[in-house]
Specification:
This protein is an alpha/beta fold and 561 residues long. The protein contains 24 helices and 14 strands. A hairpin with a 5-residue loop joins strand 6 and strand 7. It is globular and about 65 Å long. 41% of the residues are buried. The protein binds one DNA strand of 29 nucleotides through helix 2, helix 4, helix 7 and helix 9. It comes from Sphingobacterium griseoflavum.
DNA sequence: GCCGTTTTCGGCCCGACTGTTTTCAGTCG
């Protein structure tokens, strides 16, 4: 069991304690334990009771609950609370904007026990009658439920990958003489996955046996040449049967989006029987098109004109910008993050961007603590040379679009990532203005996660992308592709527009622990979908070139009136 | 439930923002 899952259980327990009006201090201790577990710098599974209990915010009782969770999947107090709560009420707690207090009123005063009933009540304008609820709250809740409903059955790419990878391995082991490949949206590296498609030459009857023999899978439907099943996470799978002669052809047909395939067919019907996908594209007079690009946008006209971008790869990345440490809300220290980048990832540089002072919840840095951090960076840079740590900050964009420190402090950073973390409910005009004001700030180097979205969990604030990207172009501001699998923001669908305008992109992991740095691979996936090549990616610059880039920007600043 | 002693009890307690109130409660990052 991962720390995240343990933390989730404690969070639920604290929400339920609040729902049942239990002692507020115990309730808060439970919430705080959840937070601390999430921030443990080691896996709780490996830790003894004593090791856990000596962590701040975790005592003997919490340590025991953690061990109980790991060995049995739950603990007594949580079990009892869950047992007396209708499942629909539990679901309500996970809807954004609905906390224990509001759920309490919905359940106790209005007698609503399911999310469906709650949506119905919103539509019937019945929520406004409840104490503390008004029209706006009702509308927010209605929107949040509809968002959650739309996310039903969908998975983040990263999660789907984790769940589905063992299946392909199992197929390869059980059907050694056959060919198997992921296809469809998963092979195209889409950020959200509705089903895992696997093309295989294994015989269908044997596949059915194989699925039925595995307790994790439930067979849903069998067709002539395919079968559908789901797993214990409710992730859906489709096995598509092929044969060795047609494998490449079938792979091509199932990988491309409908639009991509239609556009190919408009050129000429692709011909089965070729050895490779490459050969099929060649027969159509086209170069090979990478699966990530096969969305039916511009890739076929690019291919026809022989100007497909050379897509960026993980190994093109020379460094990483926008990362957190224990100075703010990160789990690992500055030295640990640097050592990991240098020794494990073999990168040339690390950009540190802890939270700025307004982000109190994330332990944002005061001017004094910034000086401490800078001194430590200077010392580490001496030790680790030629590896380089750049002094950055993730500056909050305040409500009026200004940055979070006075100019004399901003001037001392190597670079500044500006992003919005608070006051997220804005209309498009306000959000766009706020972003543009931040982009026009001469100290802004990179615009961080432009929409603030959390995939499948929260829509971002609405943004006029064209105006924001144009402003970045006009002010030479780089746009972040936040590589956290929940964000992947800037969306790949807007990358081409940015690139056409000459805007550089940066694949930023926003890592809060060493392992988070590997999220850059998800950034690479969507960057490739957007057609990004290494020369337009800021953190594919060498240490020397990026230092020059930062310096040039600072020179420009000095020339300002 | 955790913590730190004035050391085994008693205090603990983000702040901004929003929407609902008419002075504050709930939620979030």
């Amino acid at each position: 069991m991962e720390n995240k899952a343990i933390a989730k259980a404690f969070k639920l327990c604290s929400q339920l304690m609040e729902l049942y009006n239990q002692n507020p201090f115990r309730t808060k201790a439970m919430a705080s334990a959840s937070f601390k577990i999430d921030k443990l710098p080691f896996p709780a599974v490996d830790a003894s009771l004593e090791q856990l209990a000596e962590r701040p915010g975790i005592g003997k009782s919490t340590a025991e609950k953690i061990h109980s969770l790991i060995s049995t999947g739950s603990f007594k107090e949580l079990d009892e609370l869950v047992a007396k709560t209708p499942i629909g009420v539990l679901e309500m707690l996970s809807i954004k904007g609905l906390g224990p207090k509001k759920v309490q009123i919905v359940w106790n005063d209005l007698g609503i026990e399911t999310v469906g009933e709650l949506l119905y009540a919103c539509n019937e304008n019945r929520l406004v009658e409840a104490k503390g609820f008004g029209l706006k709250t009702q509308e927010e809740i209605r929107k949040a439920i509809e968002f959650a409903n739309a996310a039903q059955g969908l998975f983040l790419y990263a999660k789907a990958e984790k769940i589905a990878a063992p299946l392909l391995v199992a197929l390869e082991e059980n059907f050694k003489d056959d060919k198997h490949s992921f296809t469809g949206e998963f092979r195209r590296k889409c950020e959200i996955i509705s089903a895992i498609d696997i093309l295989t030459t294994a015989p269908q009857a044997a596949l059915i046996k194989f699925i039925e023999a595995n307790e994790h899978y439930t067979l849903l439907e069998t067709y002539d040449t395919s079968l559908q099943f789901s797993d214990s996470f409710s992730l859906k799978y489709q096995l598509l049967c092929s044969n060795h002669a047609n494998f490449a052809y079938d792979l091509l047909v199932h990988t491309g989006s409908d639009a991509h395939i239609q556009q190919l067919q408009a050129l000429q019907q692709p011909i089965p029987g070729a050895e490779t996908e490459e050969a099929i594209y060649h027969k159509l007079g086209l170069p090979y098109i990478a699966p990530e690009l096969r969305e039916g946008l511009q890739e076929i006209s690019w291919a026809k004109e022989n100007r497909l971008p050379v897509l960026i790869k993980f190994t093109d990345l020379k460094g990483t910008l926008h990362n957190h440490t224990t100075y703010s809300d990160g789990v690992h220290t500055l030295a640990q993050m640097a050592a990991y980048c240098k020794d494990e990832l073999r990168l040339e540089y690390l950009g540190i961007c802890d939270h700025s002072k307004t982000a109190v919840y994330a332990n944002g840095l005061s001017a004094e603590r910034l000086k401490e951090q800078w001194a430590e960076i200077d010392a580490l840079n001496q030790q680790l040379a030629p590896f380089k740590i750049f002094k950055g900050i993730e500056s909050d964009i305040l409500a009026d679009g200004s940055l979070d420190y006075p100019d004399e402090i901003l001037a001392q950073f190597d670079f500044v990532v500006a992003s919005i973390h608070s006051n997220l409910r804005m209309d498009q005009e306000k959000a766009t203005q706020r972003l543009i004001r931040a982009i026009e700030n001469p100290y802004t180097t990179i615009l961080g996660h432009p929409t603030g979205r959390l995939l499948l969990s929260r829509a971002g604030y609405p943004v006029d992308f064209k105006r924001v990207i144009d402003a970045c172009a006009a002010n030479s501001v780089v746009i972040e592709i936040n590589a956290n699998p929940l964000r992947l923001d800037l969306d790949w669908r807007w990358q081409q527009y940015a690139l056409e305008k000459g805007v550089l992109l940066s694949i930023n992991p926003d890592a809060h622990r060493t392992e988070g740095l590997m999220d850059m691979q998800y950034g690479i996936h969507v960057a490739r979908k957007g057609g990004l090549s290494a020369e337009c990616c800021l953190n594919a610059f060498s240490a020397e070139n990026i230092a020059l880039f930062f310096q040039k920007r600072k020179l420009k600043l000095k020339q300002l009136p």
